[in-house]
Specification:
This protein has about 700 residues and is of the alpha+beta class. It is about 30% helix and about 25% strand. The longest helix has about 50 residues. The N terminus and C terminus are likely disordered.
Length: about 700
């Protein structure tokens, strides 16, 4: 008897993309030998040990034994291959992997001379502190050692040794999840060249970010309040990996364990003294160039000495001109704006509602928004270095409204959001600034708004006051309200020159050199048309255009480089998300087409009972064909898939083609069926048809 089968749906789906990326990801692709190549991707800034265990492997031969262990540097790293043993049986495997920060055989310098992590000329009292295991399942550390420092209120914490920031805990969690997570809020972890990790705990403010290289003696944060009202204190320890790998007869890796071993810290005190600290004793930090440059290369030492002769400024907000006799032309607007009831200040919607009800022109609305923010949001000194452009917009806005504190990104996000809700077009601008002739070393954010058909810039952060001697002074500065772009560009440089709002944009090099006057000998840039084009582009197109402009304008400092790298990462994630969405949509169309086909087969097996009109029967197969074609089209739109995705797309394309051939076969049968009279149609069901899934 002839058999006509139901076709099962294709159920392989990509995982969705997430910005909350693991530090280590394990992937594989179909190689040219018909096997599978496994590789890791290290998204962090230090080495990791990756361990792969295999609990089930059928019809596959591995190039290595299990558990497989490898030390991987940042980036991609090929691990091992699996090759099919024969073509008769379908290969299958079940694996798991884990990872640990550090090196498999760290060459740690136990006698390394660390610099006291306090300011030059400052004193601190040393104290011991006990190891606290936040997870009872974790093994106890080997040779535990940690030292604490009692400092004066507001004292800065400095790096005791050169390295790269691999993790920081600013509010609720480490930004890099592969590292030691115990301890209090406010913590920085720095990877050293010998694969040890320095941990600075109990910080109330953090100046650094993951991936940043930190030199010995460079500020990293502020000491937090001590536990016994004894001023401020922080803790410092250095650990390294002491990993125990499971034996070869344990392929599932159940015997893999990690222990942290700790360094008995010695500190440089003067030319003749490198020693461990005695609890209860006070120590003074004396800077020494040879200790600071100990792990630098010659070229780095040369640059360090040059930078030392020209230190960067630490003031984030420009002091204002406090001369008397200045008349506030916005006094009437300010008076009404500052009467905004506290009950309406909990959300930007209610603030915008009050402003819209009390002011009619775009100019008056913008002034009311500016003065309310500048007068009601206190500059958050403790978090002045904790700038995170990539925080969610909603969090940037809600945080200052709840706490009445914020940094530049909070001021700018608030201003732009309220502008938009009062009907004023506005953008947040990201870039960096220059004060006293020198470029700052942390980025900045401000705003732009379209007022009466012209673009103006606004910096409510600098307009709210200034920082002096570690204290914020509120002083409204109208220089940063509705500033002409050609004036602000002397001190504020956007990463993307689109937001200079200039027909002849200046380069980063010119900004550093102070050459900010209009130069009409340069190529003309129609920023008005470009902004209009920007508003029409999708997110990926905006990122691509921005990256191109940033690159053309010169990568002058690490802030520009960091922003460009993040944009490129966003572009790749957008492309991957689009490919994933297209693939999943193709799978959905395929499954729908199969469902329609199966409905037809089941109806045919019932000899078209109950009776339906011919067109309705024809539509069952036409619908299946249409959905299969749609699946095919979506697969063709996936751009630049990786090797693993290519194999999956190929398999789905093959399944679509096979299903479509079955649909055509049934459509041909149906045409023949419809060409016959009623009596002859019954003869078309002479075959006994069975269905198989």
């Amino acid at each position: 008897m002839k058999k006509i089968s139901l076709i099962s749906g294709f159920l392989i789906l990509f995982n969705s993309v997430s910005f909350a990326q693991k530090p280590i990801e394990l992937n594989y692709y179909l190689n040219g030998h018909g096997g599978y190549t496994f590789y890791s991707e290290n998204h962090d800034f230090c080495n990791y040990i990756v361990i792969v265990s295999m609990s089930n492997m059928r019809n596959l031969k591995a190039s290595s034994s299990f558990p497989f262990a490898a030390e991987v540097k940042p980036g991609k790293y090929t691990l091992f291959e699996l090759s099919p043993i024969s073509g008769e049986n379908f290969p299958a495997l079940k694996y798991a992997y884990t990872y640990f920060a550090g090196c498999s055989k760290p060459d740690v310098k136990l006698d390394f001379p660390y610099l006291l992590p306090i300011g030059a000329g400052k004193e601190a009292e040393a104290f011991n502190y006990e190891y606290v295991n936040s997870n009872p399942d974790d093994p106890e550390p080997k040779n535990w050692y940690g030292i604490g420092f009692k400092t004066a209120s507001g004292d800065t914490v400095y790096a005791a040794r050169r390295g790269t920031v691999v993790g920081m805990k600013d509010t609720t969690e480490f930004l890099s999840p592969g590292h030691d997570n115990s301890g209090e809020i406010g913590k920085v972890e720095i990877a050293h060249i010998d694969c040890s990790f320095g941990v600075y705990e109990s910080l109330s403010g953090i100046f650094v970010r993951p991936g940043q290289r930190v030199e010995t003696g460079e500020p990293i944060g502020i000491a937090a309040d001590g536990p016994d009202s004894e001023g401020r204190s922080f803790r410092f320890s250095v650990h390294y990996n002491d990993l125990r790998i499971a034996p070869a007869n344990d392929p599932e890796g159940k015997g893999v364990k990690q222990f942290w071993a700790y360094v008995p810290l010695s500190f440089w005190l003067d030319q003749n003294k490198i020693t461990r600290l005695t609890p209860g004793m006070r120590y003074e930090c004396l800077l020494n160039d040879s200790i600071i440059t100990l792990e630098m290369e010659k070229s780095q030492i040369k640059k360090w000495k040059k930078d030392k002769a020209h230190p960067l400024p630490v003031t984030l907000i420009k002091p204002v001109n406090t001369s008397k006799g200045v008349v506030n032309e916005y006094a009437a607007i300010d008076k009404i704006a500052l009467k905004l009831p506290d009950s309406l200040s909990k959300s930007t919607e209610s603030i915008a509602g009050y402003i819209t009800a009390n002011f009619k022109t775009e100019n008056d609305k913008a002034r009311a928004i500016f003065i309310w923010i500048a007068s009601n949001i206190q500059y958050d000194l403790e978090n002045m270095f904790a700038l995170n452009f990539y925080e969610k917009k909603e969090e940037k806005i809600s945080k200052p409204l709840k706490t009445r504190k914020g940094i530049c990104e909070n001021y700018a996000a608030l201003f732009t959001d309220i502008c938009l809700k009062t009907g004023i077009k506005s953008f947040v601008i990201e870039g960096y600034t220059k004060q006293n002739g020198l470029a700052d070393y942390i980025p900045h954010a401000w705003s732009a708004a379209l007022i009466d058909s012209s673009w103006f810039t606004f910096d409510p952060t600098w307009g709210s006051g200034y920082v002096k001697s570690g204290k914020f002074y509120r002083k409204i500065n109208n220089e940063y309200f509705k500033t002409v772009p050609s004036s602000l560009v002397t001190s504020h440089m956007p990463f993307d020159y689109l937001w200079q709002f200039l027909y002849y944009p200046i380069t980063n090099q010119e900004f550093y050199e102070g050459k900010t006057k209009e130069n009409k000998s340069k190529p003309y840039f129609n920023y008005v048309d470009s902004i209009q084009q920007y508003e029409k582009q999708n997110h990926t197109e905006q990122l691509l255009a921005s990256a191109s402009r940033i690159e053309r304008n010169g990568i002058k400092n690490s802030m520009i480089f960091d922003r460009l790298q993040h944009i490129r990462m966003e572009i790749e994630q957008d492309k991957q998300s689009k490919s994933i969405n297209l693939y999943n949509a193709a799978v959905s169309d395929f499954n729908d087409g199969i469902s329609d086909y199966n409905d037809f087969i089941q109806y045919r097996n019932k000899k078209f009972i109950p009776k339906k009109p011919d067109q309705e029967i024809r539509n069952m197969l036409d619908s299946s064909a249409m959905k299969l074609k749609s699946s095919k089209t979506k697969l063709s739109e996936v751009v630049n898939p990786d090797e693993n995705a290519v194999a999956m797309i190929h398999q789905l394309n093959k399944s679509v083609d096979e299903a479509f051939a079955r649909v055509i076969e049934q459509q041909d049968w149906l045409k023949k069926y419809f060409s016959k009279g009623q009596s002859d149609r019954k003869m078309m069901f002479y075959e006994k048809i069975e269905t198989l899934y």
